[in-house]
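**Polypeptide and fold**
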Amino acid sequence: MLSTEISPFPGARVVTGLRVRARAARRVALIALSGSIALPAAVQMLAERAATREETLQLAVLALLVFLGSLPALVATQAVWGARMRTVRRHERALYATASGAPARTLSRLGVAACWVVTLLLGYTVPRPFHESGLYGVAATLTGAVETLTLAGYAAGVFFAAWWARGALSALGRLAHAGPSPGDPWDPGRSAGTGKATQPFPVATPYRMRRTLLRATRAARGPAVLWGASALAVTALLGARAHLWEPDTGTVYALLATALVCGLVTGE
């Protein structure tokens, strides 16, 4: 009896492993992004509601430490994420003559940049609790540091805009001139950015492969729901920090826990 199963190419196994590592790095980077927004926003709201200057000072110090810790965390996690994704794209081009996800990658860069802007805006308000707690000298020093950080942020924004526009135009050019990928029947959803599996020659898909793909699709729904809940919680905290609504203290803690826990359990 003729078998219709095909062994995956050795290069496909390598690319699969690299994609797993890239997804893990992306998950860590997204956790750092959500935490760098949710934690400062929640702590600053609690500082505004503190009953005494001592409590305000404690929360102000915590907000400063969280902000100072979030910046290197964002840089490190995104650097690892970017390096692993570049490795994946390099191997995909070598094996499939194309790299997947160019439009999504272009949009995700804008999203990451927006998260950086929000994080910096939250950092700009760090001196205010110190001023309210009576440490006017510390508040003045931090205000000067914030002004310097503002100039650095403007410069980084200009460089990012130029780099993003160059990448977006390059991606559009590749999509316009690139031909169809040779594809791989063991690499569904990764051909020419179409989201559909391609097969270079007629192959009857084995039942075991269909069952595996179905399980993978069902398993992907859980993390998507958790990331959606985390994004909603972070958005609600930002709205409260901007005084678009006034939740009670218990709700602030609940939203913070939702934003952090939902991100942490996505890999389980």
